[in-house]
Amino acid sequence: MPSASPLSLLRRLPAPLLNGLGIGAGLLLCTGVIAPLWGLPAAVAASSGYGAVGVADTVVTARSKPAAMLPAIAGSLLVSLLVALTHGHAVAEALTVLAVTFGALLWTAWGKRGMPLSFVMILSLIFQMAAFREVPMDRVAALSHLGWVAAGAAFMGLWAQLCAVALARRYRTLALAESLHNLSRLIRTQARWTRDRAEPDARTSSQQDLLSLIRQQAALADVFQSARDLLYDGATHDASARRRREIDTLIHVVNLRDVVLACQLDIDQLPTSPSTRTALLRLAHFLNWHADRVADLALAVRLGEPAPPAPQAPTLLAPEDSRALQSLARRAGHLHEHGQALRRAAEGTAPGPHPEAPLLTSLVSPVSWSLPVLRRQLHLGAPTLRYALRATLAMACALWLSHHLPWHSHPHWLLLTVAVVMRGSLEQTLARRDARVIGTLLGCAVASLLLSLPLGMAARFAVLALSMALAHAYVLRDYRITTTAAAVMALLQAKMFATGPHAVWLDAAERLADTLIGACLAWGFSYVLPSWERAQLPALTHRLQQALRRYAHHVLHWQQGSALAPERTHARREVYDAIWMLAQALQRTVREPAYAGSRSPHLEALLIRSHRLISQLAVVRIVLTHRQGDLHGPTATSAIERTEAALCAWLSDDPAERQHRAPAPLAAATPHQDDGVLVSHALPEPQGDPTPWLLRRLTQIEAEAAAWADAADGVARTR
Fold this sequence. Notes:
Blueprint: H1 6-11, H2 15-38, H3 40-54, H4 65-86, H5 90-105, H6 114-134, H7 139-166, H8 168-197, H9 206-232, H10 241-262, H11 274-303, H12 323-346, H13 357-361, H14 371-375, H15 383-402, H16 411-421, H17 426-451, H18 457-473, H19 479-497, H20 504-525, H21 537-556, H22 565-589, H23 601-626, H24 633-650, H25 655-661, E1 673-674, E2 677-678, H26 691-717
Helix pairs in contact: 2-3, 2-7, 2-18, 3-6, 3-7, 4-5, 4-6, 4-7, 5-6, 5-15, 6-16, 8-9, 8-10, 8-11, 9-10, 9-22, 9-23, 10-12, 10-23, 11-12, 15-16, 15-20, 16-20, 17-19, 17-20, 18-19, 19-20, 21-22, 21-23, 21-24, 22-23, 23-26, 24-26
């Protein structure tokens, strides 16, 4: 076991928390320099600019940092200027609030990248409304205040760039460790699913268990893409052995996911018998053993230590196992081989840029702000525009209400709650609503306790910095922690801005009341101009359909070597991204009302069929990779061409065209099914000629493609 030294504990920090602590340290440095030289008001103003722009400082490469920070600085300063110009003019101030809200939420058209910039503008609006309300300012004081806000924002941009450079190596290491950790969790979930299949009543819960497993597998797409962005960026210029080792390891991690998929096939179709149960339990034990080895490697990568030696792998087969179980064990053996290759890659010492660097850099997410992305959302049916409109209406209601409540010392708190609770979907809004209320309640209690202590201004800035670090680090991991830290920050800042004595408990009570009212407003307005999932499903289904066609084509031509490597790598990533988006859509439909019409068993079937189809393709890729030389060439080539033609038919855009274009199933000696149970005695010999196995898999791919098309038609009929 690694020692629990302070250094090892520091190395265990995840990248978001490390990034948040860096932001908090920058705030201490900024205010620690400004306060002694130019006074406390200047430091407080600078901290507001720093804190708002700090939202855009996420874990990305140093090359990508200016594309995120420069728009954040410009947007923050523009919003601050508008607040300063309209302060004291009720109508103009209201128009500013609504215009900033609408414009800020349009940034969400760029998805995950645009959301921080959206919140930068919202937070700038709230911070400056608070500043100008708490402290009366003439024109000179207002200009001075804006100058210090700009200084804080600029310092945040510079500090973010310096931190990105200083922590680049650590971020890459943590991204690789996180990928390994999530892969380990996936294998462990697969082991649990396999063990459950050994139970007599496993079939009754098979579909829901499989859906849970698919969601976890789909979530890996986002984890792997974040790792690609950090590790592959600049790979053509970095000649260090460390960078090449990390890239090789990530490539093996991504490939290992496909092998894990292959281990799921045919388990539900095995005949119920004591030997089957014993074999499945052995397979589950082996998968758990392998998950432990990947977890050990993840921890070693995180701590910068050599991976501990692996013990002997458990036995997979007994001599009397059937052909079906022998085939399953063979696929598990491929998993073991890939695991050993992963371990060798993690210990590599080859110098020089990675030989596939040009391909790898093409897999990095774009950093530019493409205008066509926004233009596609500028129509009334677009989710982004509808979200911006209903959020603006909710903010208008909150603004009016804030001036008519019995308390009105912090009207911006109500606006902030509405802005952060309302999300693009009802499911996300409900989750934010609950987390916001719980976190605010805890934060008010913590802030009341802290402010009851005789804390000096330096200690308050330290608490403010720590709160900002935690709020930033956990915004995507646990929003309750973010909200707790945000409540502490808000009450501390209110005390700093206040010019006279004010009871802490009054501010805490107002914060809690505004949170409750704002959460209810956001919840209620989620039903205004809604964007239900049923409207987005056709586009998601079409995207997945096209991705499956491209990926299937490249898998079936895997034997052509590296000529198609860039295209097939992009195709595989697109398939997993599309399945991830479909899995998220399925999760969101659970919280939608029945009249929305998004819920459909066909949607679950589509996700399961997609999963099974790529699992079958993964097995075909393994056969073409490991046993290409043993195949009977003419037979295999003819079967592959026939299957590709069938896939093109079943995955075509026109449902009517599928009926007359789809060729007949392969006439091969393949196993048949009786009431959905595989008759295992018809299986080919696992150690013999792999051609019958390839023909069997190709037949199953055609059947899965036909079932996928039927599920896609069912989804289309639910609209």
